[in-house]
Amino acid sequence: MEEKGYGLLEIKRLNRVRIKKVIYKYAPITRIQIAEALGLTLPTITTNVASMLSDGLLKEAPLSDETPVNPQSGRKPSVLSFKADAAYAVGAELGPYCTTVCATDLLGKIVFQREYPIAPQEYDRMLPELAGEIRDIASHLPQHKLLGAGVGLPGFIESEKGVIRSNSRQSWNGKNLMEDLRRELGLGVTIDNNVRMRAIGEELLVRKLRPDIFAYYYISKGIACPLMIQENVIAGYTAGAGEIGHTLAQPDGPICPTCGHAGCLDAVASETAILNFCREACKEGKAPVLRSLLSEEKADALDIKTVLRAQQMGDLSVCEIVEHAVEYLGISLANLINLISPGLVVVDGYLMKQECNRKKLRDVIAKHLYGLNEKEVGIEFLSFDLYRGAKGSAAKVLRKFLLE
Ligand SMILES: [Zn+2]
Questions:
Q1: Domain 86-204+388-403 shares a fold with domain 208-381
Q2: Which of these, 252, 317, 318, 349, could form a disulfide with 310 (CB 3.0-4.6 Å)?
């Protein structure tokens, strides 16, 4: 008897979650459309919607002025959507170049954002600094509507336990960042790999129909590619799935600075690799445009922005270096597509700001596809957004709220 009761409660809970998800994704939407989309009865929708309206989560608006009155109910049909200011989340990304923190409303729109210098190498310094940054952003929000904070960081992260298993900043490894931050903030915290956070944000906050298997290919200081399958990020058996940057690209290639193996994709095609090759070219007296840009800007630190400028200005050595990297990126993507056949690949990375790099990537992929033509493989390039990772981290908090 008890089991039966529990089963019924669970069905009710699942129905509520499904209704929330449909409204979140497809609002504005009518009760009838929700019922049709989910194959549930109208009374089930009406009961759930009524409780969400009274909780202040949803708002209702007339479908349109011209819509006739429904003869059965005697009312005009109305559309439902979530109230943006019903709840808020904070997201942070401990990125490879800087830390970004933002607050979003329930619909994922950023309401506050701030950029900070790269997080310290020492865990004991990073923790209070990060807590302070999150607290600062959170102080702008109504506290009773704050759902929690999400933090994304590079490396091998055991999200469920909240543990940083492996990260290039040695003193962070083995630490339970989730618990430590919870204690510091007195707030619900979730942590994950930063590229997975980006993929979660892309899945939750982009309101368009997407294939239910998509790959999120991220090119930055390193390269990663989490897979989303039916709204879930594939973590793998040991939480390390998606580390495409450490798959072998060139057996006799340079040593990968992160894992120490020779010829990882990261070592031949990441921003770090491109910058290393450019530095060498400059030392050898090549790359004249790049060298003149660097002396002009008096910059000791070479960055990917300057490299792309030199590429645009036709520096032959730089063009060759970037093309070589994009060739490897294209091969790795074609391998991935041939293996998994995702309905869509979303490509995120500053390198792909340049149209010629996008074209080259598409061409290389097309050359190596098996059994598919390039039109059957959706490739979507995201525009560069400094806060994309922080927003994705907030999205994970919002998603947890929607799934409750
Ligand atoms: Zn490696």
A1: yes
A2: 318
* Distance from Cα 259 to the centre of ligand 1, integer Å: 4
Cα–Cα distance for residue pair 344/165, rounded to 1 Å: 29
Q: Report how far ligand 1's centroid is from the alpha carbon of 351 (Å).
A: 20
* 378 C-alpha to ligand 1 centroid (Å): 28
Ligand 1 centre from 223 Cα, in Å? 10
Q: Is the peptide bond before 154 cis (omega within 30 degrees of 0)?
A: no
Please give all residues whose CB falls under 5 A of ion ligand 1, grouped by chain where several chains appear: 246, 256, 259, 264
| Spatial CA neighbour of 216 closest among 233, 230, 204 | 233
H-only helix segments in 186-238: 194-205
261 CA to middle of ligand 1, Å?
6
402, HSE (Cβ side, Cα atoms, 13 Å): 24
Q: Distance, CA 260 to ligand 1 centroid (Å)?
A: 6
pLDDT tens-place string over residues 230-272: 778 876 666 667 889 999 999 999 999 888 999 999 999 999 9
DSSP helix/strand/coil, 204: helix
Domain 208-381 fold is Nucleotidyltransferase; domain 5 (3.30.420)
Residues 342-399 have pLDDT tens digits of 889 999 999 999 999 999 999 999 999 988 776 778 899 999 999 999 999 999 999 9
Under a CB-based contact definition with an 8 Å cutoff, are residues 356 and 327 in contact? no
86-204+388-403 has which CATH code? 3.30.420.40
Residue 219 CA to ligand 1 centre (angstroms) = 14
Return d(Cα 182, Cα 134) in angstroms, integer: 11
Q: Is the ipTM of this complex over 0.95?
A: yes
Cα-to-centroid distance, 396 and ligand 1 (Å): 27
Distance (Å) from CA 93 to ligand 1 centroid: 22
Q: Where are the domains of the chain?
A: 2-82, 86-204+388-403, 208-381
The answer for residues whose C-beta is within 8 angstroms of residue 150's C-beta and 6 or more apart is 89, 90, 91, 92, 189, 190, 191, 192, 197, 392, 393, 394, 395, 396, 397
Q: How many angstroms is it from 257 CA to the middle of ligand 1?
A: 7
What's the burial of 134, exposed, middle or buried (CB within 10 Å: 0-12/13-18/19+)?
buried
| Domain at 2-82: CATH code | 1.10.10.10
Q: Which of 194, 151, 201, 146 is nearest to 176 (CA)?
A: 151
